[in-house]
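name: query_chain
kind: protein
chains: 1
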Amino acid sequence: MLAAIMTKVPTDELVIADDVTLRDMGPGDVKIKIAHSGVCHSDLSAMNGTIPQAPPAVLGHEGAGVVTDVGSAITHVVPGDHVIIAFSPPCGTCAYCTGRGQPNLCLTGYFTMNSNPQFRQGDNVVGSMTGCG
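structure:
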């Protein structure tokens, strides 16, 4: 797949690569064919070092598309659904997610979002911002 990779920090350039692959789907994963995307200031902040993001990494977390595959534990979307990508994935159990109705403020999701790298380039792991990219 085609990807724009941040290879160093600080940088003002991304390397375009066509040999990036996704890891195997896990039970909690949703695969989306991106139809539209945007560049967020946090992408630029990762590139200049303001937001810590270790290179190499596929940036990007603002997008919309169509679900193409879902993991076995996913019940809230199905292939064919039109979706948007959330910057900070909600955990679904903390006070922000359950009691306050503010899943966009979930710190659990924020701190765990890069714990499972999604991409590879050959034998090398390539990180991603918020598990998206």
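note: The chain has a mean pLDDT of 88.
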